[in-house]
Amino acid sequence: MQKRDYYDVLGIQRGASDDEIKRNYRKLALQFHPDRNPDDNAAEERFKEAAEAYEVLRDPEKRRIYDQFGFEGLQGTGFQGFGGFDDIFSAFGDVFQDFFGFNSGSTARRRTQQGADLRYDLEISFLESALGVEKELDIARREPCEVCHGSGAKPGTGPSTCDTCGGRGQVTRSQGFFRISTTCPSCHGTGTVITDPCDACQGSGRVQVKRKVHVRIPPGVDTGSRLRLREEGEPGVFGGPPGDLYVMIYVKPHEFFRREEDDLVCTVPISFVQAALGAQVDVPTLDDIEKISIPKGTQPGEAFRLKGKGFPRLRSYGRGDQVIELQIITPTNLTKKQEELLREFAAATGQEVEPEHRPFFGRKLKKDKK
User: Fold this and answer.
1) Is 103 exposed, middle or buried (0-12, 13-18, 19+ CB in 10 A)?
2) What global pTM score does this model have?
3) What distance, in Å, lies between the first and last C-alpha atoms of the chain?
4) Do domains 118-159+194-251 and 254-370 have the same CATH topology?
5) Which positions ≥6 away from 171 have C-beta within 8 Å?
6) Which CATH architecture has domain 6-100?
7) What CATH code would you report for 254-370?
């Protein structure tokens, strides 16, 4: 039987895109699927023909050779087409699952799976969040059992073929024209079961162990910051890649500093004498001690700003500022001498020292009428 041009088989033009190739093959595979056309030799041949065309045209290198040299060029690549349905289902197992929502293959596959991601909640001090720190974490994670090497079976034994699916990893039921295969509930798709489980892992193939993981906390993190350590999660299954470890940051409050975005804020108490006459005051910063000048006549609530003395900007350059809020302290428990001096000061400035005998704002308050 003379072969038809692969583009004609799929009903597409030579410049067709990959999506067009796949879409047209889907239509033909659904139309001529053997479960939908039992005992129909013509449909079987069309099904095989479409699969062969799809196999060539979906592969960029095979398609290039076919476009340039035709069928003869493909012979040099070793491509012989498909011998039967099993070859087609084996080659396009994922494709059939994508097309029809189920697998048409007959053998169990152990698919690689990425390991689980892990989370670790880490509490650090306020200064550690500002300056950065390195920590060593004890991480509990499940790893392959060293006794059974991850098989789950007791040493000297091995897994047995699953009786439910006969080792296929799937159970099949008929629905209309199709045989629908689903994952075997007994072996969960592996095709085998553990009849003599390993004592160390109780047949799971994994045990929980603690590993030390080193992590560098960058300057500028805050509560809610999340650090991702790639491949520090649990190992993958059947050769899959490890998961990641996510470190969630919680910052303890500080007794003197507080944070407002990237600014460092602190409250510095001064006496009313320092506020009135001016003074030099030592103020702690993240790096050292800074001396700031308090000008004469400073009022309550005034603040000073030290540029670039705040938190490092985590996702940018530079640092925030340090904001110094002044708290003017009123003296208590005055001695008689101190009271006399304050009265003299009040008299010199024209202030009265008996406010209880002076009407509020120079006038008497009217009582509310009942």
Assistant:
1) buried
2) 0.59
3) 115
4) yes
5) 164, 165, 181, 182, 183, 184, 185
6) Orthogonal Bundle (1.10)
7) 2.60.260.20
Helix ranges restricted to H, 133-291: 272-277
pLDDT tens for the chain, 370 residues long, are: 578 899 998 999 998 999 899 889 888 888 887 767 777 888 888 888 888 888 889 888 888 888 888 888 777 666 666 655 555 655 554 455 444 444 444 444 456 678 889 999 999 999 999 999 999 999 999 988 889 888 888 888 888 888 888 777 777 776 555 566 678 888 877 788 888 899 999 888 889 999 999 999 999 999 999 999 999 999 887 778 889 999 999 999 999 999 999 999 999 998 888 888 888 999 999 989 999 999 998 888 889 999 999 999 988 889 999 999 998 888 888 899 988 888 888 788 777 656 554 554 445 545 555 4
Instruction: Tell me the C-alpha distance between 35 and 360, whole Å.
Output: 100
How many residues would you count in the chain? Answer: 370
What would the CATH number be for the domain defined by 118-159+194-251?
2.60.260.20
Q: State the DSSP code for 139.
A: E
Burial of 165 (0-12, 13-18, 19+ CB in 10 A): buried
**Domain layout of the chain by residue ranges:** 6-100, 118-159+194-251, 254-370
